[in-house]
Structure formats: C-alpha cells, structure tokens
Amino acid sequence: MGFFAGRATFLRFRVDGLAPSLFGPEHLEKLDNHAIGKQKTAEKDGTEVGWIASDDILDLGFDLAKNVINDILYCCIRIDTQKLPADLLRSYARTELEALAAQNPSGRPSPKQKKDAREAAREKLEVEAKDGRFIRRKAYPVLWDRLTNYLLVGTSSPSVLDRVRNLFQETFGCGLVLVDAGQRAGLGSHAASLADVRPASFVPTTTPSQVAWVADPSSVNFLGNEFLLWLWFVLETAGDTIRLGDDSNVAVMLARSLVLDCPREVSGNETIRSDAPTKLPEARRAIQAGKLPRQMGMTLVRHDQQYELTLQAETFAVSGAKVPTIDEKDDRLRREERIGQIRHLIETVDLLFDAFLERRLSADWPKELKRIHEWLQPEERGRLAEAG
Prior knowledge:
- The chain has 388 residues and is of the alpha+beta class.
- It contains eleven helices and 13 strands.
- The chain has helices spanning 25-33, 64-67, 86-101, 111-129, 158-172, 181-187, 222-238, 281-288, 331-360, 365-375, 381-387, and strands at residues 8-16, 48-52, 68-69, 72-82, 135-145, 150-153, 175-178, 241-243, 249-261, 269-274, 292-302, 305-312, 318-322.
- Strands 1, 2, 3, 4, 5, 6, 7, 8, 9, 10, 11, 12 and 13 form a 13-stranded antiparallel β-sheet that branches.
- The longest helix is centred in the last third of the chain and has 30 residues, at 331-360.
- The model has no long low-confidence stretch (mean pLDDT 90).
C-alpha cells in the first residue's frame, strides 16, 4: 500500500528547516507522542488526527525496522471523522415527532415539537456514537526523505494536506512548503530570472496576460501549464527524446489523459481520455483556441526505467504513477528499491522541467515562442515536424 505497492500518488513538500542527519528513536518518539488518540482535544466536528505506524489502520507500534528505511521516515496520518448516518437520524426524528404529536388534539406537530424531535434524535445518535460505530477512519501515507528534505504526502485533498501541515508542525516543529511549479522553478539557478516572467502569449490576441487559476499575482505557477504545452510542441516537432541537464536522455510519450482549461474563464475546460489524447482533433482545436494543459498523462523512459504517471501542471502533483516491477522477495530490500524508483521518477520530472526552463528563461525564448505560434497554425504543423 501507499508508496511501496501499486500505483503511487503524491504531492511534494519541502521541509522548512535543516534535514536530520539520521532518522532514529527520537523521531519515532515524536510520532508516538502525536499518534492517533493521544490528542488532548478533537476538532469541533469531532474529527481526530494523528500518526499511525503503517497502512494498517490500527497499527500504532512505531519501530525502526518498520518506519525507518535507510534515509526515509515512513508513516501514515490517520483522520477519524464522526459521520452520523442521515437516514438513521431522520428515522429517529420521525419516531420522536410521532410521539410528541400524538399528544396534540389535531394530531399535527408544532414547529417547536419538530425542533425538539430533531434535537432528541441527534442526542440519541450521539450517545450511540460513543462506542465508535459511526467513525470513518482513513489513512494517508507520508514519506520524509532526508536526502532531499522532501515530504511526500499520498493525497491531493486540500483538507487532508492542511491537517498534515498542522500535525507535522506540532510533531517536528517544522513547516512545510508545497513544491509546486513556481517553487520548483525557484529552487535552481533560475530564481533570479523569475521576477519579470509573465504568462506567454501562445495564441496572439487570445492568451491573456493573467491566468485565471493562478490567483496570486506574485506566483509563477503558470509555468507548469506552459511546460506541458511546450512538451507537447517539442514531441510533435523534434521527436520523442529530450536531452536533459545531466547529459541523460528521456523518451516521452503523452498518453491516457489530458485536461485543458481556458485561462480567461471563457470557454470552460475539457477532459480527454485516449491512448494518444494530444493526437485527437478536439485537443488540437482547444490549444489553438488558447486553452492550456492543466493535467497530462505521460510515459517516461530514462536509464532504461519506464514510468507511467499523470502530472498536474500547477501543483506538480503526481497521480497513478506506475514504476517498474520489482522481483526482490525480501520485503525490506524491495522497499529500498521502490524508494529508489520514486526518487528517480521525481528527478526525471524535475530535469525535464529544467530543460523547459532553460528555454523559457533564455534570450532565445522569443524565437521558440514564434515556432510555437507557427506550430499552432494548421498549415504549419506538418512542415515544422519535418524541419524538426
């Protein structure tokens, strides 16, 4: 489960502070002190949040062999939500109301009796709920890599991510910063070049100077959308292999899914599912109309390792990532190899994004943008592919 079996889904955070020199008993003690059930108070709605030791929803036994794998600290956040069943609440309220209304000469309930019946029904359910029968327990994997000082969280749910941030701060005294497209662009040598970057006009008079879904005017998360469109352009005009900054090559194929949206909030969004979604005429028409990719499925092959994933443009969320099959029978060795694959996948995505930034933030970008303008013209598509 989580990061060690099946397809992986995660968002990446940078831990705000120095990376630990090693993970050890002191980290497990902190997790244990903030385990589920040890909070002094629950949230107002009865929700409780805490750590568990593994994907087993009831496992609270933190230990080095299970939760520390070389340079990785692994655990899960568990969220217990009290969910009173609405149908049972209505049934109890009806029973209470019938009993109250029976005392009325008309046989019809008064507004006050309706209110009293609802309150009595809720109180009855809350008494029954004390044994935990209506608690919904859900766990989400969390992986802290001290080599990169990244925290990977196995969900993109905003409410869960808020709780992860709060619990991680309480547990380890460190904040978390989402490594979205803008943050990732600022981590390398490109940071100084970002101050004056504005959204590119891929379709003159159509692409706006602001992107609707990037509300913060200081954010450059639109670079994630531009990255996916540039990648589409390069693959169609220059071949499916891209040279990366570490002198390795990555072969890229766009596949399975594509989400496009109008940055002006005029024509709405489109979701296309196909073996080759970018080859479909509706996808082509969408980008010619000024829409930008917000999510794209892809297959990456680098160092003879093949990965399938879907990448969200602004947040850099990875979903449904399939990594090569591991034949190792020893569970710990298999987990170590799996961690190496996830690191390699993240490195490959980052290097691919860096290849885009090298073009996007260089003096040659206007020439590249002109080529994209021409590529988006139907009569130029074939000619550019041949020239590339």
